[in-house]
What we know:
- The chain starts with a strand and ends in a 12-residue tail after the last helix.
- The chain has one domain (about 1-225): 3-Layer(aba) Sandwich (Rossmann fold), CATH 3.40.50.300.
- The protein is about 45% helix and about 15% strand.
- It contains 8 helices and 7 strands.
Amino acid sequence: MKLVLLGPPGAGKGTQAQHLVSSVGLVYLASGDILRAERASGTELADQVAGFMDAGRLVPDEIIIEVILNRLPDATLGWLLDGFPRTVRQAVSLEKALIDTGKGGIDGVVEIRVSDAVCIQRISGRRLCPVCNRVYHTHASPPAEPGRCDDDGTALTQRTDDHAEVVKERLRAYHETADPLASYYRDRGLLQAIDGDRDAETVKMAVMNAVAAIRSGDISSQAQLGGR
C-alpha cells in the first residue's frame, strides 16, 4: 500500500505516522529526512541537493522526485510519504514518475484536518527546557511550576517559530498550496479526510479506519472526517 499523508503544522502527523509505521508495517518516508540522507550519501545527486540547500533555495521538483524514487522500498513493502507532494504540480509529476518507473500510482491520501485555532493553540503553547530539551505545553502538559522545568528548574523558552503570529503565517502558506492539493486528490477519489481537532487516540482510530477503507477500495463519504 502506497500512501501520502497531508496535514498542517500542529496536526500531529508525526504521531500518527509512527503508529501507522508500527501497526500497518509501512516504511515512513519524510521528504526532509530523505533530502538530508541523500545529501550525506556522497553521490552526484547529493552534490546537486547540497548546492540548492546550501544556497537556501528550494530543491527542484524533478530532483526531489528522483531522490524519492531512489529511496522507495521494495515493491513488496508499503510506504507512507510525508512532506511531498506539497502542490498539485508536484502531485502530478510524482504520479507520472511512479507510473513511468513501474512503481505504480499511490493508493490513497490521508489528510488530517485541524482548524487554524487548534493548530495555533497546540503550537504556540509549546515550551522547551534549553538544558534537557524536555518539551511542555501550557495547557496539555504544563510543568508543576509555571515557566520552570520539572527536572532541573531551568526557565522554559519558546521557539521563535512557535509564536502565534508566526504560526498564523505558516498556516496561511500551508493552505495556499495544500487546499488545492487536497481537492485534486479528492476529485481523483483518493482522499480520506480525518477530523484532527479531536484527541490523539480518537484521531488514531479514525486514521486506521481511513487506511482500512483505502486498502479495501471503499473510499466513501461516510469515511470522510472519520465518519462524522
